[in-house]
Amino acid sequence: MAGKTVTRADLCEAVYQKVGLSRTESAELVELVLDEISACIIRGESVKLSSFGSFIVRSKSERVGRNPKTGEEVPISPRRVMVFKPSNVLKQRINGTLLPNGHAPDDEA
Questions:
Q1: Which GO terms describe its cellular component (predicted)?
Q2: What Cα–Cα distance (Å) separates residue 7 from each residue in 12, 27, 30, 50, 61?
Q3: Average pLDDT of every residue of the chain
């Protein structure tokens, strides 16, 4: 599965093309959105983007892991992790059962 990686520059260019802001304003807008999402996640808040998905912070407690090479048990320290849960709409779009306009491929529009 060799797909293209979308970068910040790609996002800025898409905003520039589709919204009509200047390139500078588009870059600032993308940065502001990403900064706000990051700040919320760092504070431990969940970020839900309708029809896209949710970024959730989970706390993992200390546990015992195993070194796969030696089999030695090693303690894994507690930490917070960020997980992304895609929305059902995004899942349907990925699997081709829902078009971007919200209709199924067989619907007559």
A1: cytosol
A2: 9, 12, 11, 22, 33
A3: 90
Q: Domains in the chain, ordered, with CATH?
A: 7-43 (no CATH), 44-99 (4.10.520.10)
- With residue 75 as reference, give the H or E element that holds it: strand 73-76
For residue 109 the two structure tokens come to: 């529009």
Residue 84, phi then psi, degrees to nearest 5: -115, 130
* Alpha-carbon distance values, 10 to 27, 34, 56, 90 (Å): 10, 14, 25, 20
**DSSP-derived 3-state class of residue 97:** coil
